[in-house]
Amino acid sequence: MIKTSIRNKLIVLLLIITIVPFGSSIVITYLYTKNSIEEQVVAESKNLLYQGKVNLESYINELDDLTLSLYNNPDFINFMRNPDQGDDYLTIGIVKNVVQTILYTGDTINGVRISFRDEDRVIKATKRSNVIFSSKKNEEDKEAFLRAERSPYNMYIEPDFPQKENEIKRSRNIVTIHRAFRNIPDDEVLAYISLEIYPDKIINLSRNLYTGEKEEFYLLTPGGEMIYSSDLDVTDDQNNQKWIKRIVGEEKSEGTMEWKEDGFNGVIMYDQLPLSAGGWILAKRVSYANLYESAFSVAKINILFGILGLTLVVLATLFVSFKITSPIRVLLRNIQEVEKGNMDVRLPAFGSDEIGLLGVRFQQMIERINTLINREYKLELENKNNQLKVLQSQINPHFLYNALQSIGTVALKNKVPQVYTLITYLSKIMRYGMNMEEDMVPLDKEINYTKAFLLLQKERFGDHLDYRITVEEGVREAQVPKMILQPIIENYFKHGFDIRDGVGRIELDCRSVDDHLIITVRDNGIGVTTQRLEEVHDHFKAAALNKIGESTNIGLKNVYVRLKLYYDDQAALHLENSDEGGFKVTMELPIEREDE
Protein backbone atom coordinates (compact mmCIF):
# COMPACT_ATOMS: atom_id res chain seq x y z
CA MET A 1 0.00 0.00 0.00
CA ILE A 2 2.88 2.34 0.78
CA LYS A 3 4.50 1.84 -2.62
CA THR A 4 1.23 2.07 -4.58
CA SER A 5 -0.44 4.88 -2.61
CA ILE A 6 -0.67 8.06 -4.64
CA ARG A 7 -0.62 10.05 -1.40
CA ASN A 8 2.73 8.62 -0.32
CA LYS A 9 4.15 9.04 -3.82
CA LEU A 10 2.94 12.65 -3.93
CA ILE A 11 4.42 13.40 -0.49
CA VAL A 12 7.77 11.85 -1.43
CA LEU A 13 7.81 13.66 -4.79
CA LEU A 14 6.99 17.06 -3.27
CA LEU A 15 9.55 16.58 -0.51
CA ILE A 16 12.23 15.65 -3.03
CA ILE A 17 11.54 18.61 -5.33
CA THR A 18 11.64 20.97 -2.36
CA ILE A 19 14.38 19.53 -0.12
CA VAL A 20 16.87 18.92 -2.94
CA PRO A 21 16.79 22.53 -4.27
CA PHE A 22 16.88 24.00 -0.75
CA GLY A 23 19.71 21.73 0.38
CA SER A 24 21.63 22.28 -2.86
CA SER A 25 21.18 26.03 -2.52
CA ILE A 26 22.59 26.00 1.02
CA VAL A 27 25.59 23.84 0.04
CA ILE A 28 26.32 25.82 -3.13
CA THR A 29 25.95 29.14 -1.31
CA TYR A 30 28.33 27.98 1.42
CA LEU A 31 30.92 26.67 -1.03
CA TYR A 32 30.70 29.75 -3.21
CA THR A 33 30.89 32.09 -0.21
CA LYS A 34 33.81 30.13 1.24
CA ASN A 35 35.77 30.22 -2.01
CA SER A 36 34.89 33.85 -2.62
CA ILE A 37 35.97 34.89 0.88
CA GLU A 38 39.18 32.88 0.58
CA GLU A 39 40.03 34.51 -2.73
CA GLN A 40 39.14 37.95 -1.36
CA VAL A 41 41.19 37.54 1.85
CA VAL A 42 44.18 36.14 -0.05
CA ALA A 43 44.03 38.95 -2.60
CA GLU A 44 43.74 41.63 0.11
CA SER A 45 46.55 40.07 2.15
CA LYS A 46 48.85 39.86 -0.87
CA ASN A 47 48.12 43.50 -1.71
CA LEU A 48 48.77 44.45 1.91
CA LEU A 49 52.04 42.50 1.99
CA TYR A 50 53.09 44.16 -1.23
CA GLN A 51 52.31 47.59 0.18
CA GLY A 52 54.20 46.73 3.38
CA LYS A 53 57.13 45.51 1.31
CA VAL A 54 57.17 48.81 -0.59
CA ASN A 55 57.03 50.80 2.64
CA LEU A 56 59.81 48.78 4.32
CA GLU A 57 61.94 48.93 1.18
CA SER A 58 61.46 52.68 0.98
CA TYR A 59 62.37 53.08 4.64
CA ILE A 60 65.51 50.93 4.41
CA ASN A 61 66.59 52.58 1.17
CA GLU A 62 66.12 55.95 2.85
CA LEU A 63 68.48 54.89 5.66
CA ASP A 64 70.92 53.39 3.18
CA ASP A 65 70.98 56.64 1.23
CA LEU A 66 72.31 58.39 4.34
CA THR A 67 75.50 56.33 4.12
CA LEU A 68 75.70 56.81 0.36
CA SER A 69 75.49 60.57 0.83
CA LEU A 70 78.98 60.49 2.41
CA TYR A 71 80.48 60.00 -1.07
CA ASN A 72 79.34 63.53 -1.87
CA ASN A 73 81.64 65.05 0.81
CA PRO A 74 85.24 65.34 -0.57
CA ASP A 75 86.70 66.37 2.80
CA PHE A 76 85.22 63.33 4.51
CA ILE A 77 86.48 61.02 1.74
CA ASN A 78 90.01 62.49 2.06
CA PHE A 79 89.89 61.87 5.78
CA MET A 80 88.79 58.26 5.22
CA ARG A 81 91.69 57.78 2.78
CA ASN A 82 94.28 59.36 5.12
CA PRO A 83 92.95 59.23 8.70
CA ASP A 84 96.48 59.82 10.12
CA GLN A 85 96.71 63.22 8.45
CA GLY A 86 93.39 64.43 9.72
CA ASP A 87 94.17 65.16 13.31
CA ASP A 88 93.79 68.92 13.00
CA TYR A 89 90.79 70.57 14.51
CA LEU A 90 89.26 71.50 11.18
CA THR A 91 89.18 67.92 9.91
CA ILE A 92 87.88 66.61 13.22
CA GLY A 93 85.14 69.19 13.10
CA ILE A 94 84.13 68.13 9.61
CA VAL A 95 83.97 64.47 10.68
CA LYS A 96 81.91 65.30 13.75
CA ASN A 97 79.55 67.39 11.68
CA VAL A 98 79.02 64.54 9.17
CA VAL A 99 78.41 61.99 11.90
CA GLN A 100 75.96 64.21 13.80
CA THR A 101 74.14 65.09 10.57
CA ILE A 102 73.48 61.41 9.90
CA LEU A 103 72.58 60.78 13.56
CA TYR A 104 69.92 63.48 13.74
CA THR A 105 68.49 63.04 10.23
CA GLY A 106 66.01 60.40 11.32
CA ASP A 107 64.12 59.94 14.60
CA THR A 108 64.70 56.18 14.53
CA ILE A 109 68.53 56.38 14.27
CA ASN A 110 70.04 55.59 17.68
CA GLY A 111 73.76 55.56 16.81
CA VAL A 112 76.39 55.87 14.08
CA ARG A 113 79.71 54.00 13.95
CA ILE A 114 82.60 54.29 11.50
CA SER A 115 85.04 51.37 11.82
CA PHE A 116 88.27 51.63 9.81
CA ARG A 117 89.30 48.42 8.19
CA ASP A 118 93.10 48.56 8.45
CA GLU A 119 93.39 50.53 11.66
CA ASP A 120 92.06 50.06 15.16
CA ARG A 121 90.13 53.27 14.97
CA VAL A 122 86.43 53.77 15.55
CA ILE A 123 84.34 56.90 15.35
CA LYS A 124 80.98 56.57 17.05
CA ALA A 125 78.15 58.69 18.35
CA THR A 126 74.71 58.20 19.92
CA LYS A 127 71.95 60.56 20.81
CA ARG A 128 73.01 60.21 24.42
CA SER A 129 76.71 60.95 23.82
CA ASN A 130 78.95 63.12 21.70
CA VAL A 131 81.15 61.98 18.85
CA ILE A 132 83.87 59.75 20.24
CA PHE A 133 87.13 58.81 18.51
CA SER A 134 88.27 55.44 19.88
CA SER A 135 90.87 52.81 19.11
CA LYS A 136 88.82 49.86 20.36
CA LYS A 137 87.01 47.77 17.75
CA ASN A 138 84.03 45.50 18.41
CA GLU A 139 85.15 42.01 17.40
CA GLU A 140 81.53 40.79 17.24
CA ASP A 141 80.98 42.98 14.18
CA LYS A 142 83.60 41.27 12.03
CA GLU A 143 81.15 38.72 10.60
CA ALA A 144 78.66 41.47 9.75
CA PHE A 145 81.44 43.58 8.13
CA LEU A 146 82.52 40.58 6.04
CA ARG A 147 78.95 40.00 4.81
CA ALA A 148 78.60 43.66 3.84
CA GLU A 149 81.92 43.51 1.97
CA ARG A 150 80.88 40.38 0.06
CA SER A 151 77.44 41.71 -0.78
CA PRO A 152 76.99 43.03 -4.36
CA TYR A 153 75.22 45.95 -2.74
CA ASN A 154 77.99 46.61 -0.13
CA MET A 155 75.32 46.43 2.52
CA TYR A 156 74.17 43.99 5.20
CA ILE A 157 71.29 44.41 7.64
CA GLU A 158 71.83 42.70 10.98
CA PRO A 159 68.90 42.10 13.35
CA ASP A 160 70.30 41.99 16.87
CA PHE A 161 67.41 40.04 18.43
CA PRO A 162 63.85 38.86 17.68
CA GLN A 163 61.22 41.46 18.51
CA LYS A 164 57.89 40.22 19.87
CA GLU A 165 54.62 42.06 19.77
CA ASN A 166 54.23 44.59 22.61
CA GLU A 167 57.95 44.18 23.56
CA ILE A 168 59.47 47.38 22.22
CA LYS A 169 62.75 48.00 24.08
CA ARG A 170 64.11 51.35 23.09
CA SER A 171 67.31 50.71 25.07
CA ARG A 172 68.41 47.98 22.67
CA ASN A 173 68.85 47.93 18.90
CA ILE A 174 66.76 45.72 16.73
CA VAL A 175 68.49 46.51 13.42
CA THR A 176 71.99 47.55 12.41
CA ILE A 177 72.71 48.56 8.82
CA HIS A 178 76.36 47.92 7.90
CA ARG A 179 77.86 49.44 4.73
CA ALA A 180 81.29 48.71 3.27
CA PHE A 181 82.73 52.17 2.41
CA ARG A 182 85.00 51.71 -0.62
CA ASN A 183 87.69 53.96 -2.08
CA ILE A 184 85.80 54.89 -5.26
CA PRO A 185 86.55 54.13 -8.04
CA ASP A 186 88.77 51.37 -6.59
CA ASP A 187 87.32 48.28 -4.88
CA GLU A 188 89.38 48.89 -1.75
CA VAL A 189 87.33 48.95 1.45
CA LEU A 190 88.30 51.94 3.60
CA ALA A 191 85.87 51.50 6.49
CA TYR A 192 82.51 50.15 7.59
CA ILE A 193 79.67 52.52 8.45
CA SER A 194 77.05 51.10 10.84
CA LEU A 195 73.64 52.68 11.59
CA GLU A 196 71.88 51.49 14.74
CA ILE A 197 68.11 51.78 14.19
CA TYR A 198 65.26 51.89 16.69
CA PRO A 199 62.55 49.26 15.92
CA ASP A 200 59.61 51.66 16.25
CA LYS A 201 58.90 52.31 12.56
CA ILE A 202 59.47 48.71 11.52
CA ILE A 203 57.11 47.58 14.30
CA ASN A 204 54.48 50.11 13.25
CA LEU A 205 54.77 49.13 9.60
CA SER A 206 54.44 45.47 10.57
CA ARG A 207 51.37 46.10 12.72
CA ASN A 208 49.56 47.62 9.76
CA LEU A 209 49.93 44.39 7.77
CA TYR A 210 47.65 42.09 9.80
CA THR A 211 44.43 42.10 11.81
CA GLY A 212 44.64 41.60 15.54
CA GLU A 213 43.80 38.12 16.79
CA LYS A 214 42.57 36.76 13.45
CA GLU A 215 45.85 36.87 11.54
CA GLU A 216 49.55 36.27 12.23
CA PHE A 217 52.45 38.26 10.78
CA TYR A 218 56.18 37.46 10.73
CA LEU A 219 59.22 39.33 9.48
CA LEU A 220 62.13 37.01 8.61
CA THR A 221 65.66 37.39 7.38
CA PRO A 222 66.61 35.68 4.08
CA GLY A 223 68.03 32.84 6.21
CA GLY A 224 64.77 32.39 8.15
CA GLU A 225 65.70 34.15 11.39
CA MET A 226 62.80 35.84 13.14
CA ILE A 227 62.93 39.63 13.13
CA TYR A 228 59.34 40.27 14.16
CA SER A 229 56.54 37.93 15.29
CA SER A 230 52.94 38.73 16.20
CA ASP A 231 52.62 35.37 17.99
CA LEU A 232 54.77 34.89 21.12
CA ASP A 233 54.57 31.09 20.78
CA VAL A 234 56.11 30.95 17.29
CA THR A 235 59.91 30.95 17.06
CA ASP A 236 62.29 30.72 14.16
CA ASP A 237 63.16 27.11 14.99
CA GLN A 238 62.88 25.64 11.48
CA ASN A 239 62.68 22.10 12.85
CA ASN A 240 59.41 22.92 14.59
CA GLN A 241 58.32 25.56 12.12
CA LYS A 242 58.75 23.77 8.82
CA TRP A 243 56.78 26.42 6.97
CA ILE A 244 59.67 28.86 7.53
CA LYS A 245 62.07 26.40 5.98
CA ARG A 246 59.63 25.91 3.09
CA ILE A 247 59.35 29.64 2.40
CA VAL A 248 63.11 30.21 2.67
CA GLY A 249 63.70 27.36 0.21
CA GLU A 250 61.20 28.67 -2.36
CA GLU A 251 62.67 30.03 -5.57
CA LYS A 252 59.85 32.54 -5.92
CA SER A 253 60.06 35.77 -3.98
CA GLU A 254 56.30 35.84 -3.31
CA GLY A 255 53.42 33.36 -3.27
CA THR A 256 50.62 31.57 -1.42
CA MET A 257 50.47 28.06 0.00
CA GLU A 258 48.18 25.92 2.13
CA TRP A 259 49.71 24.53 5.33
CA LYS A 260 48.44 21.79 7.66
CA GLU A 261 51.43 21.13 9.94
CA ASP A 262 53.12 22.62 13.00
CA GLY A 263 49.75 23.02 14.73
CA PHE A 264 48.49 25.34 11.99
CA ASN A 265 45.76 24.69 9.38
CA GLY A 266 45.26 27.52 6.94
CA VAL A 267 46.80 29.69 4.23
CA ILE A 268 50.26 31.28 4.29
CA MET A 269 51.08 34.27 2.07
CA TYR A 270 54.57 35.67 1.75
CA ASP A 271 56.53 38.34 -0.07
CA GLN A 272 60.23 39.33 -0.02
CA LEU A 273 62.09 42.62 -0.09
CA PRO A 274 64.74 43.04 -2.79
CA LEU A 275 68.22 41.96 -1.76
CA SER A 276 69.32 45.57 -2.14
CA ALA A 277 67.00 46.38 0.77
CA GLY A 278 68.03 43.44 2.92
CA GLY A 279 65.95 40.67 1.34
CA TRP A 280 63.64 40.37 4.36
CA ILE A 281 60.64 38.02 4.05
CA LEU A 282 57.16 39.20 5.03
CA ALA A 283 54.92 36.23 5.92
CA LYS A 284 51.27 36.24 6.91
CA ARG A 285 49.26 33.28 8.22
CA VAL A 286 45.45 33.04 8.30
CA SER A 287 43.81 29.91 9.74
CA TYR A 288 40.81 28.39 8.00
CA ALA A 289 38.74 28.94 11.12
CA ASN A 290 39.25 32.71 10.87
CA LEU A 291 39.28 32.67 7.06
CA TYR A 292 35.86 31.04 6.78
CA GLU A 293 34.29 32.72 9.78
CA SER A 294 32.17 34.95 7.56
CA ALA A 295 31.26 31.99 5.36
CA PHE A 296 30.21 30.04 8.45
CA SER A 297 28.04 32.94 9.56
CA VAL A 298 26.38 33.16 6.14
CA ALA A 299 25.94 29.37 6.09
CA LYS A 300 24.32 29.43 9.55
CA ILE A 301 21.89 32.10 8.42
CA ASN A 302 21.13 30.13 5.24
CA ILE A 303 20.66 26.93 7.21
CA LEU A 304 18.36 28.69 9.67
CA PHE A 305 16.21 30.13 6.90
CA GLY A 306 16.49 26.83 5.02
CA ILE A 307 15.17 24.84 7.98
CA LEU A 308 12.36 27.35 8.43
CA GLY A 309 11.55 27.18 4.72
CA LEU A 310 11.73 23.39 4.67
CA THR A 311 9.41 23.20 7.66
CA LEU A 312 6.87 25.36 5.88
CA VAL A 313 7.32 23.38 2.69
CA VAL A 314 6.85 20.06 4.48
CA LEU A 315 3.68 21.32 6.18
CA ALA A 316 2.40 22.70 2.87
CA THR A 317 3.29 19.41 1.15
CA LEU A 318 1.39 17.37 3.72
CA PHE A 319 -1.58 19.72 3.51
CA VAL A 320 -1.68 19.65 -0.29
CA SER A 321 -1.19 15.88 -0.39
CA PHE A 322 -4.00 15.20 2.06
CA LYS A 323 -6.20 17.84 0.41
CA ILE A 324 -5.78 16.21 -3.00
CA THR A 325 -5.75 12.55 -2.03
CA SER A 326 -8.52 12.49 0.61
CA PRO A 327 -11.32 12.89 -1.99
CA ILE A 328 -9.59 10.31 -4.20
CA ARG A 329 -9.60 7.83 -1.31
CA VAL A 330 -13.31 8.46 -0.73
CA LEU A 331 -13.91 7.81 -4.42
CA LEU A 332 -11.86 4.61 -4.20
CA ARG A 333 -13.91 3.34 -1.26
CA ASN A 334 -17.15 4.00 -3.15
CA ILE A 335 -15.79 2.25 -6.25
CA GLN A 336 -14.99 -0.76 -4.09
CA GLU A 337 -18.59 -0.70 -2.81
CA VAL A 338 -19.84 -0.63 -6.40
CA GLU A 339 -17.58 -3.61 -7.21
CA LYS A 340 -19.30 -5.51 -4.39
CA GLY A 341 -22.68 -4.78 -5.99
CA ASN A 342 -23.80 -1.93 -3.76
CA MET A 343 -25.04 0.69 -6.23
CA ASP A 344 -26.64 2.84 -3.54
CA VAL A 345 -23.59 5.05 -2.85
CA ARG A 346 -23.60 8.73 -2.00
CA LEU A 347 -20.54 11.00 -2.31
CA PRO A 348 -20.00 14.17 -0.24
CA ALA A 349 -19.38 17.46 -1.99
CA PHE A 350 -15.67 17.89 -2.79
CA GLY A 351 -15.82 21.50 -3.95
CA SER A 352 -15.83 23.06 -7.40
CA ASP A 353 -12.36 22.03 -8.58
CA GLU A 354 -11.44 19.12 -10.86
CA ILE A 355 -11.73 16.55 -8.06
CA GLY A 356 -15.11 17.96 -7.04
CA LEU A 357 -16.25 17.73 -10.66
CA LEU A 358 -14.95 14.15 -10.79
CA GLY A 359 -17.06 13.29 -7.73
CA VAL A 360 -20.18 14.83 -9.28
CA ARG A 361 -19.60 12.96 -12.55
CA PHE A 362 -19.04 9.70 -10.67
CA GLN A 363 -22.32 10.15 -8.79
CA GLN A 364 -24.14 10.91 -12.05
CA MET A 365 -22.55 7.85 -13.66
CA ILE A 366 -23.73 5.57 -10.83
CA GLU A 367 -27.26 6.97 -11.10
CA ARG A 368 -27.25 6.48 -14.87
CA ILE A 369 -25.94 2.92 -14.48
CA ASN A 370 -28.81 2.21 -12.06
CA THR A 371 -31.27 3.60 -14.60
CA LEU A 372 -29.75 1.56 -17.43
CA ILE A 373 -29.75 -1.60 -15.33
CA ASN A 374 -33.48 -1.18 -14.62
CA ARG A 375 -34.16 -0.41 -18.28
CA GLU A 376 -32.14 -3.40 -19.50
CA TYR A 377 -33.99 -5.63 -17.09
CA LYS A 378 -37.34 -4.47 -18.45
CA LEU A 379 -36.11 -4.70 -22.04
CA GLU A 380 -34.93 -8.23 -21.42
CA LEU A 381 -38.41 -9.17 -20.23
CA GLU A 382 -39.98 -7.53 -23.29
CA ASN A 383 -37.44 -9.25 -25.51
CA LYS A 384 -38.38 -12.66 -24.14
CA ASN A 385 -42.04 -11.95 -24.97
CA ASN A 386 -41.14 -10.71 -28.44
CA GLN A 387 -39.03 -13.79 -29.11
CA LEU A 388 -42.01 -15.99 -28.32
CA LYS A 389 -44.17 -14.00 -30.73
CA VAL A 390 -41.51 -14.12 -33.43
CA LEU A 391 -41.13 -17.86 -33.07
CA GLN A 392 -44.84 -18.21 -33.47
CA SER A 393 -44.98 -16.14 -36.67
CA GLN A 394 -41.62 -17.06 -38.18
CA ILE A 395 -41.65 -18.49 -41.68
CA ASN A 396 -39.05 -21.04 -42.55
CA PRO A 397 -36.86 -19.51 -45.31
CA HIS A 398 -36.41 -22.91 -46.94
CA PHE A 399 -40.18 -23.31 -47.15
CA LEU A 400 -40.38 -19.87 -48.83
CA TYR A 401 -37.60 -20.69 -51.30
CA ASN A 402 -39.26 -24.04 -52.16
CA ALA A 403 -42.63 -22.32 -52.63
CA LEU A 404 -41.12 -19.75 -55.01
CA GLN A 405 -39.37 -22.57 -56.91
CA SER A 406 -42.67 -24.41 -57.28
CA ILE A 407 -44.36 -21.25 -58.60
CA GLY A 408 -41.55 -20.78 -61.10
CA THR A 409 -41.89 -24.37 -62.29
CA VAL A 410 -45.64 -23.89 -62.84
CA ALA A 411 -44.90 -20.70 -64.82
CA LEU A 412 -42.53 -22.62 -67.13
CA LYS A 413 -45.10 -25.40 -67.61
CA ASN A 414 -47.66 -22.79 -68.59
CA LYS A 415 -45.13 -21.21 -70.95
CA VAL A 416 -44.74 -17.92 -68.99
CA PRO A 417 -40.93 -17.56 -68.84
CA GLN A 418 -41.12 -13.89 -67.82
CA VAL A 419 -42.87 -14.85 -64.59
CA TYR A 420 -40.19 -17.47 -63.95
CA THR A 421 -37.41 -14.86 -64.47
CA LEU A 422 -39.04 -12.41 -62.08
CA ILE A 423 -39.53 -15.09 -59.45
CA THR A 424 -35.85 -16.09 -59.85
CA TYR A 425 -34.74 -12.47 -59.28
CA LEU A 426 -37.01 -12.20 -56.25
CA SER A 427 -35.64 -15.47 -54.89
CA LYS A 428 -32.04 -14.18 -55.23
CA ILE A 429 -32.95 -10.95 -53.50
CA MET A 430 -34.67 -12.74 -50.60
CA ARG A 431 -31.91 -15.35 -50.26
CA TYR A 432 -29.24 -12.55 -50.22
CA GLY A 433 -31.14 -10.42 -47.72
CA MET A 434 -32.10 -13.26 -45.35
CA ASN A 435 -28.58 -14.71 -45.10
CA MET A 436 -27.56 -13.43 -41.66
CA GLU A 437 -24.20 -15.24 -41.52
CA GLU A 438 -22.26 -12.55 -43.41
CA ASP A 439 -22.00 -8.78 -42.94
CA MET A 440 -19.11 -8.01 -45.34
CA VAL A 441 -19.32 -9.27 -48.94
CA PRO A 442 -17.27 -8.82 -52.13
CA LEU A 443 -18.34 -5.83 -54.21
CA ASP A 444 -19.16 -8.14 -57.14
CA LYS A 445 -21.74 -9.98 -55.01
CA GLU A 446 -23.31 -6.69 -53.92
CA ILE A 447 -23.44 -5.58 -57.59
CA ASN A 448 -25.26 -8.80 -58.61
CA TYR A 449 -27.82 -8.23 -55.88
CA THR A 450 -28.26 -4.63 -57.05
CA LYS A 451 -28.72 -5.80 -60.65
CA ALA A 452 -31.49 -8.19 -59.55
CA PHE A 453 -33.20 -5.35 -57.69
CA LEU A 454 -32.97 -3.03 -60.73
CA LEU A 455 -34.23 -5.75 -63.11
CA LEU A 456 -37.35 -6.11 -60.98
CA GLN A 457 -37.79 -2.32 -61.07
CA LYS A 458 -37.19 -2.38 -64.86
CA GLU A 459 -39.92 -4.99 -65.22
CA ARG A 460 -42.18 -2.76 -63.20
CA PHE A 461 -41.54 0.53 -65.02
CA GLY A 462 -40.56 -0.74 -68.47
CA ASP A 463 -39.23 1.91 -70.85
CA HIS A 464 -39.66 4.62 -68.24
CA LEU A 465 -36.55 3.40 -66.43
CA ASP A 466 -33.00 3.18 -67.70
CA TYR A 467 -29.96 2.20 -65.60
CA ARG A 468 -26.23 1.75 -66.15
CA ILE A 469 -23.68 -0.06 -63.94
CA THR A 470 -19.92 0.46 -64.40
CA VAL A 471 -17.46 -1.49 -62.26
CA GLU A 472 -13.66 -1.31 -62.54
CA GLU A 473 -12.17 -4.80 -62.74
CA GLY A 474 -9.62 -4.22 -59.98
CA VAL A 475 -12.23 -3.56 -57.30
CA ARG A 476 -14.68 -6.43 -57.79
CA GLU A 477 -13.18 -8.43 -54.90
CA ALA A 478 -13.09 -5.48 -52.50
CA GLN A 479 -15.07 -6.16 -49.32
CA VAL A 480 -18.03 -3.84 -48.65
CA PRO A 481 -20.85 -3.86 -46.10
CA LYS A 482 -23.74 -6.01 -47.20
CA MET A 483 -26.76 -4.22 -48.78
CA ILE A 484 -24.98 -0.84 -48.75
CA LEU A 485 -26.26 0.12 -52.26
CA GLN A 486 -29.90 -0.96 -52.13
CA PRO A 487 -31.05 1.79 -49.64
CA ILE A 488 -29.49 4.53 -51.82
CA ILE A 489 -31.07 3.22 -55.06
CA GLU A 490 -34.41 2.62 -53.33
CA ASN A 491 -34.30 6.21 -52.07
CA TYR A 492 -34.45 7.35 -55.72
CA PHE A 493 -37.62 5.39 -56.39
CA LYS A 494 -39.20 6.78 -53.18
CA HIS A 495 -38.39 10.45 -53.64
CA GLY A 496 -37.11 11.23 -57.15
CA PHE A 497 -38.54 8.85 -59.72
CA ASP A 498 -42.12 10.17 -59.83
CA ILE A 499 -41.12 13.84 -60.23
CA ARG A 500 -38.52 13.41 -62.95
CA ASP A 501 -38.53 14.83 -66.49
CA GLY A 502 -38.52 12.15 -69.18
CA VAL A 503 -37.11 8.66 -68.70
CA GLY A 504 -35.85 7.89 -65.21
CA ARG A 505 -32.12 7.23 -65.22
CA ILE A 506 -29.86 5.93 -62.52
CA GLU A 507 -26.09 5.31 -62.84
CA LEU A 508 -23.83 3.24 -60.58
CA ASP A 509 -20.05 3.73 -60.93
CA CYS A 510 -17.37 1.85 -58.91
CA ARG A 511 -13.66 2.62 -59.26
CA SER A 512 -10.46 2.88 -57.17
CA VAL A 513 -8.61 6.13 -56.38
CA ASP A 514 -5.52 6.16 -54.11
CA ASP A 515 -6.28 2.87 -52.30
CA HIS A 516 -9.90 3.91 -51.82
CA LEU A 517 -13.06 2.51 -53.38
CA ILE A 518 -15.23 5.31 -54.81
CA ILE A 519 -18.90 4.32 -55.32
CA THR A 520 -21.09 6.93 -57.03
CA VAL A 521 -24.90 6.66 -57.46
CA ARG A 522 -26.32 9.39 -59.70
CA ASP A 523 -29.98 9.91 -60.80
CA ASN A 524 -31.86 12.44 -62.92
CA GLY A 525 -34.41 13.55 -60.34
CA ILE A 526 -35.00 17.17 -59.39
CA GLY A 527 -32.40 17.05 -56.62
CA VAL A 528 -32.65 18.34 -53.04
CA THR A 529 -32.80 21.89 -51.71
CA THR A 530 -29.90 23.29 -49.65
CA GLN A 531 -32.06 23.50 -46.56
CA ARG A 532 -33.09 19.87 -46.96
CA LEU A 533 -29.44 18.80 -47.35
CA GLU A 534 -28.61 20.51 -44.07
CA GLU A 535 -31.50 18.71 -42.38
CA VAL A 536 -30.28 15.36 -43.72
CA HIS A 537 -26.77 16.04 -42.39
CA ASP A 538 -28.26 16.94 -39.00
CA HIS A 539 -30.09 13.59 -39.02
CA PHE A 540 -26.78 11.87 -39.74
CA LYS A 541 -25.14 13.54 -36.74
CA ALA A 542 -28.06 12.63 -34.50
CA ALA A 543 -27.89 9.02 -35.67
CA ALA A 544 -24.12 8.92 -35.03
CA LEU A 545 -24.79 10.06 -31.44
CA ASN A 546 -27.53 7.40 -30.99
CA LYS A 547 -30.18 10.09 -30.72
CA ILE A 548 -33.71 9.42 -31.94
CA GLY A 549 -34.54 11.62 -34.91
CA GLU A 550 -37.21 11.82 -37.63
CA SER A 551 -37.93 8.80 -39.79
CA THR A 552 -37.23 10.72 -43.01
CA ASN A 553 -34.33 9.34 -45.07
CA ILE A 554 -34.04 6.31 -42.85
CA GLY A 555 -32.26 4.50 -45.70
CA LEU A 556 -29.51 7.08 -46.08
CA LYS A 557 -29.21 7.33 -42.30
CA ASN A 558 -28.80 3.55 -42.13
CA VAL A 559 -26.02 3.70 -44.71
CA TYR A 560 -24.24 6.53 -42.84
CA VAL A 561 -24.41 4.75 -39.48
CA ARG A 562 -23.14 1.47 -40.96
CA LEU A 563 -20.19 3.21 -42.61
CA LYS A 564 -19.29 4.76 -39.25
CA LEU A 565 -19.70 1.38 -37.59
CA TYR A 566 -17.46 -0.52 -40.01
CA TYR A 567 -14.91 2.14 -40.94
CA ASP A 568 -15.14 4.85 -38.27
CA ASP A 569 -13.52 7.97 -39.81
CA GLN A 570 -11.88 6.02 -42.65
CA ALA A 571 -15.03 6.22 -44.79
CA ALA A 572 -17.07 9.19 -45.99
CA LEU A 573 -20.59 9.72 -47.40
CA HIS A 574 -21.18 12.78 -49.60
CA LEU A 575 -24.63 14.02 -50.69
CA GLU A 576 -24.92 16.72 -53.36
CA ASN A 577 -26.94 17.92 -56.34
CA SER A 578 -25.42 17.04 -59.73
CA ASP A 579 -24.35 19.80 -62.07
CA GLU A 580 -26.36 18.12 -64.86
CA GLY A 581 -29.43 17.89 -62.61
CA GLY A 582 -30.55 15.22 -60.20
CA PHE A 583 -29.05 13.90 -56.99
CA LYS A 584 -25.61 12.29 -56.44
CA VAL A 585 -24.45 10.11 -53.56
CA THR A 586 -20.73 9.32 -53.25
CA MET A 587 -19.25 6.77 -50.87
CA GLU A 588 -15.48 6.70 -50.23
CA LEU A 589 -14.33 3.45 -48.59
CA PRO A 590 -10.84 2.13 -47.87
CA ILE A 591 -10.14 -0.95 -49.99
CA GLU A 592 -8.45 -2.49 -46.93
CA ARG A 593 -9.68 -1.63 -43.45
CA GLU A 594 -6.99 -0.78 -40.84
CA ASP A 595 -8.63 -3.00 -38.21
CA GLU A 596 -9.55 -5.79 -40.64
TrEMBL record:
Catalysis performed (reactions): ATP + protein L-histidine = ADP + protein N-phospho-L-histidine
Enzyme Commission (EC) number: 2.7.13.3
Keyword Mitochondrion carried by entry: no
Keywords: ATP-binding, Cell membrane, Kinase, Membrane, Nucleotide-binding, Phosphoprotein, Transferase, Transmembrane, Transmembrane helix, Two-component regulatory system
Subcellular locations according to the entry: Cell membrane
Domain of life assignment: Bacteria
InterPro entries for this protein: Bact_2-comp_sensor_kinase, HAMP_dom, HATPase_C_sf, HATPase_dom, His_kinase_dom, Sig_transdc_His_kin_internal
PROSITE patterns, alphabetized: HAMP, HIS_KIN
Transmembrane segments: 12-32, 303-324
Domain Histidine kinase: 485-593
Enzyme class, first EC level, given as a word: transferase
Membrane topology summary: Multi-pass membrane protein
One Gene Ontology MF term: phosphorelay sensor kinase activity
Signal peptide positions (record): none
Residues of the HAMP domain: 322-374
Gene Ontology cellular component terms for the protein in this record: plasma membrane
Gene3D superfamilies associated with the record: 6.10.340.10, Histidine kinase-like ATPase, C-terminal domain (3.30.565.10)
Protein name in UniProt: histidine kinase
